[in-house]
């Protein structure tokens, strides 16, 4: 993976830019989610606290209304008169009960109003009570009741004609407005079911609940019915004491974690406690998380698309330039690339174009210099050889041999003279096929005299191609290679066959021998040298390693290089050999259109 990224500038830039985009986006998403969850939780708590305050206000209104009504009843003239009389008046009794009943009936939260005289007069009440649990509470909280002008009882149960009812009662003494003598007791009982309805109808979260605690921290409404009249600490021992008038706590020990909100009713010291399951706003947090994740993914996809588009736009010239350089053929003209921008990439492409023009000019100059150098070397070699001197000397030797009647020496000298004359040939590189064959035959004749009875050579040429032009000095080095490395190392007499034929607009030449052949390792070595020559001639600037390649068959490699230089890649030597059988070397020369028959 690392190498895959290292090979492409576009991939590396894409990765770096995507990291630069992804990390801020993820950081922003995480911060946004944390802020959103915090805001969601705060809003849920604030909404819950507002609901508690609304319930507090309603309950405070009820309590205040009951207390005001109790003051009104205590000072009511008929009630004062009834309690001061030693014998109860039936009319007064009926009238007072009617007043109490009207007050109780007009307020749903009042279940019963009872006036208990201190004398023997009958008790006034709006609901028939067969059994009441108030008296034990008065005895239990006697000290508190006696020291206060009014007292709110804990939750207790009464038996009525309609069945058992749970109530919370306001109990206060009735005194004479003139003498302040205690005349009786007023009890106003609130219906716990109606108080419960206030809590359930407040719009609290459906999966949560609200508790109402009295001044003794006992549950008087809300929650599980089995919790009624039990202390809050008994039901929720881990929450501890509620220190302030309002606040927020967390309950983790329930089946489901809850956020606990509480608010106190100052008039009585009652407390409303609301429980909100944390999953309610966690669901909202999940929604926020989903929206944030989708937004980040969309932003990432958009960012990736824009990054890839702009990188493609920026790196496209570099990619194309790289492709040009990668597929560059040193033998062809270096192409230029159109400059479409003036930025750094445009300047790079412009510099490349200038460099390609410079290389092209240097290439032409080098080729010209090489050609001039080669021509100078040939002229110098010809001057050193002084061909006229050699020709005249060999001609003199030829005539002396004839005069001495030594025909073999005369023919050998004549063949050598023709061989040298063709080799020099005033520096010309091309000749006819016939001339090339004659040159090879002169060489073979000289070698046959030197090594009598060691070999025989035969030439087979297509008559249609004998006047066709070809590069000279191609066959003689191949015959020499067959003679030296194949025939002379063989104990028996060997044969050399030189073939030439026309095939598919090409002249194909083959030099075969019946010599010792080559071992497989040596054959692979020579074939490797041929391939190396192909590589060297296909690359303009040869490396030092290429220049120092060990060459063991100079004659063959030189012929191969000359064929490649003049006729192209398809004209090189093909070397085949079998150990103990012989060697076969072939090459092909392409014909130009209309060349045969000229």
TrEMBL record:
Determine if Transferase is one of this entry's keywords.
Answer: yes
Single GO molecular-function term? kinase activity
Q: What is its main location?
A: membrane
> Where are its TM segments located?
287-311
Q: Name one Pfam family in it.
A: His_kinase
**How does this protein sit in the membrane?**
Multi-pass membrane protein
Q: Where in the cell is it found?
A: Cell membrane
Q: Which keywords label this protein?
A: Cell membrane, Kinase, Membrane, Phosphoprotein, Transferase, Transmembrane, Transmembrane helix
What is the protein's given name?
Sensor histidine kinase
Organism name? Paenibacillus alba
Lineage of the native species? Bacteria, Bacillati, Bacillota, Bacilli, Bacillales
């Amino acid at each position: 993976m690392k190498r895959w990224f290292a090979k492409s500038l576009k991939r590396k830039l894409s990765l770096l830019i995507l990291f630069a985009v992804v990390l801020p986006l993820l950081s922003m998403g995480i911060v946004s989610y944390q802020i959103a969850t915090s805001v969601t939780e705060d809003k849920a708590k604030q909404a819950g606290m507002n609901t508690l305050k609304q319930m507090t206000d309603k309950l405070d209104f009820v309590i205040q209304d009951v207390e005001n009504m109790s003051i009104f009843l205590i000072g009511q003239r008929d009630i004062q008169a009834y309690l001061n009389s030693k014998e109860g008046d039936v009319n007064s009794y009926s009238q007072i009960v009617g007043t109490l009943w009207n007050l109780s009936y007009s307020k749903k939260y009042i279940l019963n109003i009872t006036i208990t005289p201190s004398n023997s007069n009958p008790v006034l009440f709006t609901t028939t009570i067969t059994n009441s649990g108030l008296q034990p509470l008065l005895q239990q909280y006697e000290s508190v009741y006696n020291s206060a002008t009014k007292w709110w009882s804990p939750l207790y149960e009464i038996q009525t004609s309609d069945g058992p009812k749970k109530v919370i009662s306001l109990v206060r003494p009735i005194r004479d407005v003139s003498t302040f003598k205690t005349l009786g007791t007023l009890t106003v009982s609130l219906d716990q079911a109606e108080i419960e309805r206030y809590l359930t109808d407040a719009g609290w979260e459906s999966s949560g609940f609200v508790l109402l605690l009295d001044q003794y921290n006992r549950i008087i409404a809300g929650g599980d019915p089995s919790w009624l009249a039990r202390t809050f600490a008994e039901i929720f021992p881990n929450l501890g004491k509620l220190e302030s008038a309002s606040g927020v706590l967390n309950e983790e020990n329930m089946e489901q974690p809850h956020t606990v909100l509480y608010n106190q009713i100052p008039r009585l010291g009652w407390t409303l406690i609301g429980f909100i399951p944390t999953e309610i706003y966690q669901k909202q947090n999940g929604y926020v998380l989903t929206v944030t994740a989708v937004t980040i993914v969309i932003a990432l996809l958009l960012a990736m698309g824009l990054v890839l588009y702009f990188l493609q736009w920026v790196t496209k010239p570099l990619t194309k330039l790289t492709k040009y350089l990668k597929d560059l053929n040193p033998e062809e003209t270096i192409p230029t690339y159109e400059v479409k921008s003036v930025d750094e990439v445009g300047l790079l492409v412009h510099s490349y174009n200038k460099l390609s023009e410079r290389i092209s000019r240097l290439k032409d100059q080098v080729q010209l210099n090489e050609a001039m150098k080669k021509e100078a070397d040939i002229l110098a070699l010809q001057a050193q050889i002084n061909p006229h001197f050699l020709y005249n000397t060999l001609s003199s030797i030829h005539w002396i041999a004839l005069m001495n009647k030594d025909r073999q020496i005369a023919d050998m000298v004549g063949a050598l003279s023709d061989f040298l004359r063709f080799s020099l040939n005033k520096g010309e590189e091309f000749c006819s096929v016939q001339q090339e064959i004659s040159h090879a035959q002169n060489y073979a004749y000289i070698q046959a005299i030197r090594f009598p009875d060691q070999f025989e050579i035969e030439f087979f040429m297509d008559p249609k191609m004998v006047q066709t032009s070809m590069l000279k000095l191609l066959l003689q080095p191949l015959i020499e290679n067959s003679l030296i490395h194949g025939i002379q190392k063989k104990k028996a007499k060997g044969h050399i066959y030189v073939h030439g034929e026309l095939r598919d607009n090409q002249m194909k030449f083959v030099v075969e021998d019946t010599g010792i052949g080559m071992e497989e390792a040596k054959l692979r070595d020579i074939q490797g040298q041929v391939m190396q020559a192909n590589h060297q001639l296909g690359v303009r600037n040869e490396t030092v390693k290429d220049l120092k390649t060990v060459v063991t068959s100079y004659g063959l490699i030189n012929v191969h290089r000359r064929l490649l230089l003049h006729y192209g890649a398809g004209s090189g030597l093909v070397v085949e050999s079998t150990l103990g059988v012989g060697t076969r070397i072939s090459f092909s020369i392409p014909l130009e259109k209309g060349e045969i028959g000229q």
